[in-house]
Amino acid sequence: MTCVEVYPLKLKPIFKQRIWGGQKLREVFGKNIPAGKKIGESWELADLPDDKSVITNGELAGQTLGSVIKKYPKEITGDEDFAGPFPLLVKFLDAQDILSVQVHPDLETCEQMGKGQPKTECWYIISAMPGAVIYKGLRKGVTKEQFSEAIENGPPRRIAELLAKVAVEAGQCHFLPAGTAHSIGAGLLIAEIQTPSDTTYRVFDWNRVDDAGRPRELHIEEALESIHFESPPRRNLAVTTVGRLVDCEYFKIGKGHQVKGSEVLLSPGEPNTIVLVSGTGTILGADPAKAGPVEFKAGDCLVVPAVYEGAMRFAEDTQYLTVSI
Questions:
Q1: Boundary (domain end) residue, out of 192, 226, 260
Q2: Going by C-beta distance under 8 Å and a sequence separation of 6 or more, which residues neighbour residue 263?
Q3: Of the residues 226, 256, 278, which one is the last residue of a structural domain?
Q4: Are residues 256 and 160 in the same domain?
Q5: Residues 207, 156: contact at Cβ < 8 Å?
Q6: How many other C-beta atoms lie within 10 A of the C-beta of residue 252?
């Protein structure tokens, strides 16, 4: 395959209607979401069987990220033998209402059940209403039997009492390894970075029904098998300063904060995914004759190929997350 002059790839978001969503993605980021719809998720980077991000800029526009990686694996990922899919799923979440209590399985559980894909994730809090909370893990000492009994017989208050309730504020990052029971409370705008899986087992949905009066499907048996009841709640995972936020076996996340007029070099070596939380700017290639400028703004997600060399120039104060794999 002839080498292509690759460049930072901008991706078209995939919107997901959710019972707990709203219109904040339009209000904050200018996303062109359907008016009047409860859009809870904007998938900014996806390479799943049924959801594939499409490139929106440059000569590769209109092609899926996955198809471009297959054509140019070394240029994009740094690995000539990269088999795919791209090992990240990046979303923005608009939680206007509380999410279901749910869990994502780990690899061992998926193999035992013979289905599903493992999923580890983290939440970066972009904005939070006063008093906003998340539920992250179970309270210390909660057993599978206690949790199962509460789901079967207890009111929502009883189930909430068994979860580790954590107050949150903008700038924090919360890591949720596979097997952690969790829920996002109302009034939160979040950047979610995770392994490429959409396997979610809902264990409780607060007795909620949709617009047609129907409850959403639950997966109680699978959820109880997936939850790590022996693991204590992990409360001290919030990070509010610039630097490394997450360092796990699946991905590493750094937080950057640059002022207007500053510049950050982008060096070749490994692919990076950049998630813009606020601000605007331009990415300029080391050789302008080979790669033109790429504009970015808050709410964008870009994949910077492994061989790319250039710089991010910031037109205003900007906060962003950099994800490496």
A1: 226
A2: 311, 312, 313, 314
A3: 226
A4: no
A5: yes
A6: 15
* Per-residue pLDDT reduced to its tens digit, 166-213: 999 999 999 999 999 999 999 999 999 999 999 999 999 998 988 888
User: Among 18, 157, 202, 216, which one carries the catalytic annotation?
Assistant: 202
pLDDT single digits (tens) 26-49: 999 999 999 999 999 999 999 999
Residue 83 domain-assigned (yes or no): yes
Do 119 and 215 fall into the same domain? yes
User: Known catalytic residue: 139?
Assistant: no
Name the residue range of residue 46's domain: 9-226
